[in-house]
């Protein structure tokens, strides 16, 4: 498993576009989002699969985001997490 490359990020650009629209998140560098001053989400790739490391609560959780359903689920979880705080 490795950090996502620019090519990898091109493959999940639809997700990145959606994340950019969420209030409270800031993209510090392409594919690296923070919430306030703290890291919140970044991406990894492994062969043909993609993963997001997201900080829910105080720890990062790795979620598979290879297909559209997984990406929609991720966005829902992120919105719920941000609404809780």
Tell me what the structure shows:
It contains three helices and six strands, in the order βααβββββα. It is of the alpha+beta class and 85 residues long. It has one domain. The longest helix is centred in the last third of the chain and has 17 residues, at 68-84. It is globular. It starts with a strand and ends with a helix.
Task: Kindly list the characteristics that best describe this protein.
3 helices; alpha+beta; 6-stranded antiparallel β-sheet; globular; 85 residues; single chain
Low-confidence stretches: none
What order do the SSEs take from the amino end to the carboxyl end, as H and E? EHHEEEEEH
What class, by secondary structure content?
Answer: alpha+beta
Major beta sheet summary = 6 strands, antiparallel
Strand content: 35-45%
Distinct helical segment count: 3
The number of domains is: 1
Q: What is the CA-based Rg, rounded?
A: 12 Å
Determine the fraction of residues in helical runs and give it as a percent range: 25-40%
* Whole-number mean pLDDT: 95
Q: What distance lies between the first and last C-alpha atoms, to the nearest angstrom?
A: 31 Å
Gross morphology is: globular
Tally of strands: 6
């Amino acid at each position: 498993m490795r950090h996502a490359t620019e090519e990898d990020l091109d493959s999940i650009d639809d997700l990145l576009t959606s994340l950019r629209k969420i209030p409270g998140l800031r993209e510090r560098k392409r594919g690296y989002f923070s919430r306030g001053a703290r890291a919140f989400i970044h991406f990894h790739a492994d062969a043909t699969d993609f993963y997001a490391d997201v900080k829910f609560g105080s720890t990062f959780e790795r979620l598979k985001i290879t297909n559209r359903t997984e990406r929609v689920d991720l966005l829902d979880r992120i919105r719920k997490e941000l609404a809780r705080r």
